[in-house]
Amino acid sequence: MMPVLPRLSGRAAVKAFGRDGWQVARQKGSHIILVKPDSWATLSVPDRRELAPGTLRGLIRASGLTVDQFVALTKK
Q: Which secondary-structure segment (H or E) carries 27?
């Protein structure tokens, strides 16, 4: 069974990813671009009031985290 994803805004997701070492590189329009210094990967987080579950799950997967790890970051 899949863990339950929290309902988060784009800004709250950016804060949670920030706790894992992701940094805001820039914002273009309605998307916040995050980079990790020790990785070539980037994340493009929509700056929306509430992220769709599939979008959030895709961002978590792209960041290399598990859903459980991400949920723990949201509670810090």
A: strand 23-28
Pair 17, 63: CB distance under 8 Å? yes
| Residue pointed to by tokens 């987080």 | 45
Q: Name every residue whose Cβ is closer than 8 Å to that of residue 52 and which is 6 or more positions away in sequence.
A: none
SS3 content of the chain, % helix, strand, coil (to 5): 40, 20, 40
- pLDDT (tens place) for every residue of the chain, 76 residues total: 667 888 999 999 999 999 999 999 999 899 999 999 988 889 999 999 999 999 999 999 999 999 999 999 998 7
Tell whether domain 10-74 is in CATH 3.40.50.2000.
no
Model confidence, pTM: 0.91
